[in-house]
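Worked Example 4.2. Consider the chain below.
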Amino acid sequence: MAAMMNMTNLLNGKDSRWLQLEVCREYQRNKCSRPDTECKFAHPPANVEVQNGRVTACYDSIKVRSNR
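Applying the procedure from the previous section yields the following structure tokens:
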């Protein structure tokens, strides 16, 4: 039953865990030599809160980035 509720929340967009991206560790140390468009990890701006090395991304932003 719990798995079904989790799937329902996911499909309804209420569970944002699937939108979380890992932040580039090198970027966090100001050492990443790749531009954000070429690094497979997130390069969030300074005003974005990073929690446990992850950020929650906008679905549309992910969609645009993956279509490049």
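DSSP finds three helices and two strands in the chain. Residues 2 and 18 are 17 Å apart (CA to CA). Compare this with Example 4.1 before moving on.
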